[in-house]
Write a structure and sequence with these properties.
mainly beta, 2 helices, globular
Length: about 350
């Protein structure tokens, strides 16, 4: 079961490098009642509950002003929507979405009832924004693999500074530690992790191509758990590796295969408040939840366009309140779930 044929490696490379040809908008069927979408299935006690899907600003609760409706009607502009979202984060009612299909960063601010679609940073048009990380003040880091840079933008989408550029070939994953003001960047081409200080200076790097502990084969996504442990999706080694803040290897989980608990195309990852590790798998169209020792606890999702189903999902983000955001890339939406939340309660209120 665990001997992957070469075709799976080729598929993994395709998923890593695909950046062109956004699909036509998918017609998503109406969501089922929230109470019907929970995992594991009865009679087991549900632990993961579906909350909502967001494909456009209005689905995040942002209403157009009268003037904007008039302007849109005059120019024949319809409702804007995500094209191929791959990175997601949320803080204080603001949803941040990296969308290489739209070549833009979306900032959906429900509190201010406004959204910003950032397609250009000063003189540079965004080429392939794939990942985001958010500071406590709402400023957002966005990694652009085409430009080989990480920008820091304010909540209004204006450039604060270039947060990382030195030594980058294909910045693919981001994690920000507010306590140390360090930005971690996964570079999928150089097979290493780089750490940058608050002025954009590179502090350290670690990693190289290989299969040993601390080595990588296309690292693509990063996350910090609540103890400060850095989690890395080591994509084509089909595993997750964990490090302390100085880059020392701690532990790993995962293996290649097509069974429960295996990885076929691991992508976004995060940890909930109890330390469980969540990993998106783009080929399984599912999210798998593990203990740190690699024990599989639960999986949710399957291929499809209905609520709670996925089509080549990518990025993952979990809030301190254990709300789970999944970038459902080819369904052109963000799906929101909750860990341990009563299904009758609506999140984000």
């Amino acid at each position: 079961m665990h001997n992957f044929p070469a075709v799976m490696i080729a598929l993994g490379l395709l998923l890593l490098t695909s950046g062109c040809g956004a699909p036509a908008p998918v017609k998503v069927s109406p969501d089922k009642p929230v109470a019907l979408l929970a995992w594991p299935r009865p009679p087991a006690e549900p632990r993961i509950h579906y909350v909502r899907s967001v494909a456009a600003p209005n689905e995040w609760g942002i209403a157009k002003s009268f003037l904007r409706r008039m302007m849109d009607a005059l120019v024949g502009r319809g409702e804007e929507h995500f094209i191929r979202p791959t990175g997601v984060a949320e803080r204080d009612g603001v949803l941040y979405v990296a969308d290489p299909g739209a070549q833009a960063l979306w900032i959906l601010d429900r509190v201010q009832n406004q959204f910003i679609k950032v397609g250009q940073v000063r003189e540079e048009a965004l080429g392939s924004p794939v990942a985001v990380a958010v500071r406590p003040d709402g400023a957002v880091f966005v990694a652009d693999t085409w430009l080989k840079k990480v920008f820091l933008l304010d909540r209004a989408g204006k450039l604060i500074r270039i947060a990382a550029e030195e030594g980058l070939a294909r910045p693919a994953g981001l994690a920000y530690d507010a306590a140390t003001q360090r930005l971690y960047v996964a570079d999928s081409v150089t097979h290493r992790i780089s750490v940058y200080g608050p002025d954009g200076t590179r502090i350290r790097t670690w990693g190289q191509g290989g299969i040993q502990d601390g080595e990588f084969n296309r690292p693509t996504h990063l996350a910090l758990d609540r103890t400060g442990t850095l989690l890395v999706t080591d994509a084509l080694n089909f595993r997750v590796q964990a490090f302390d803040q100085e880059g020392r290897f701690l532990w790993k989980l995962g293996r290649p295969g097509d069974g429960s608990g295996d990885f076929a195309a691991p992508k976004g990852l995060a940890a909930d408040g109890e330390g469980h590790v969540y990993v998106v798998d783009a080929l399984f169209d599912a999210v798998q939840i593990f203990e740190r020792d690699g024990t599989l606890l639960l999986a949710f999702g399957e291929r499809g366009t209905q609520a709670g189903q996925f089509w080549l999902p990518g990025g993952l983000f979990i809030t301190p309140q254990n709300q789970i955001y999944v970038a459902d890339a080819y369904n052109q939406r963000i799906q929101v779930f909750a860990f341990g939340l009563d299904p009758g309660k609506e999140a984000n209120k």
